[in-house]
Amino acid sequence: MTNPYELDVYGKRGITLVRGQATHLWDDQGNEYLDCMSSHGAAILGHAHPAIVDVLTCQAAQLASAPGSFHHPEKTRLMERLVGLAPLGLARVFLCNSGTESIEAALKLARASTGRSRIVAAKRGFHGRSFGAMSATFGPKQHALFAPVVPDVDFIAYNKTEGLEDALDDRVAALVLELVQGEGGVHPAEAEFIDQAAQLCRRHGILLVIDEVQTGFGRTGRLFACEHYGLTPDILCVAKGLGAGFPMGAIIVRDGLEFPPGSHGSTFGGNPLACAVANTVLDIVTAGGFLEDVEAKGEYFRSLLDGEVRGIGLMVAIELGERARPYLDRFANAGVLALTAGKKVLRFLPPLIMTRDEIAQVGEVVREVLKEPVVARSTSAC
Hints:
Blueprint: E1 17-21, E2 24-27, E3 32-35, H1 38-41, H2 50-62, H3 73-85, E4 90-96, H4 99-114, E5 118-122, H5 131-135, H6 140-145, E6 153-156, H7 164-167, E7 172-178, E8 180-181, E9 187-188, H8 191-204, E10 207-211, H9 226-229, E11 235-238, E12 249-254, H10 272-285, H11 290-303, E13 308-312, E14 315-319, H12 325-333, E15 336-337, E16 339-340, E17 345-348, H13 356-371
Parallel strand pairs: 3-15, 5-6, 5-7, 7-10, 10-11
Antiparallel strand pairs: 1-2, 2-3, 4-12, 8-9, 11-12, 13-14, 14-17, 16-17
Helix pairs in contact: 2-10, 3-10
């Protein structure tokens, strides 16, 4: 199905989704799929989770919208919980609607708080598509298309300690990093790289901004990927899993970082519906055994796959020797919806509630599909 009214910025895959339940999706032709996309990592509790449905229904009947200049109980509770769950030392919260918005807030806060303009980010990193977030995303072609991008942004090699001292000096406002580069190919950070970067940030008064938009709230088997590194950033950016598919984002920051009143805001950020959903998500993912189960299922998933397999928790990738995009159609035909992460990387981001039996089904499909390389159709008449 095509939609002549849509300005298509995504490149459609020829499937119209009409229903979801837990880890399964159905299209308008009645085809059923195991979801290994979870809306690019957002739908961590799958689809139509009964607790999410209930809280949305109840909250919508009570209070659905409230300006940011007012308190409401769900927002107050959520902020307190986020501070209590975040790495020790993070003390305050700004709520928004998406990962891109959380990065925008972090970049503005870094410049406002330090009086410096320079931003350093990593090659292969991805932080969003608005102007600030895109400018901190490594993408020379996109930067050229929309030039001029936000100035004073430089890029360093990811997981390379050489050159860090030259890049991180007293002119830098913020260093922006993912602890697992998701769109860049599912590359976990090396501890030595993160340790040295954090030390240099402390030495030079640089704000360390950690982007956990995709990794936060259990994706890696810990509530935050920071926990794998014993790391406390100055600004933690989160989104996706916090709303389990409902639009939600936040930055969690240390004391001393300030926005002058009126210099930033969000009409819908922290609305009662989103906050009620986020509180329910936290109830579920912090329940005993949930995160441990995610970690174990991730190890099991990776054990089923052949080739160059990377990942942590239920964030899994396979490096191919050829273009990955054509394989997505094969997976869909076999009943699995997956993603790419770069030209030659297949990526799997299933809901965190996916069972071991379902993971085994996915593993079998992956093995079968990858047995035969994708070969371009011959134009010969023979």
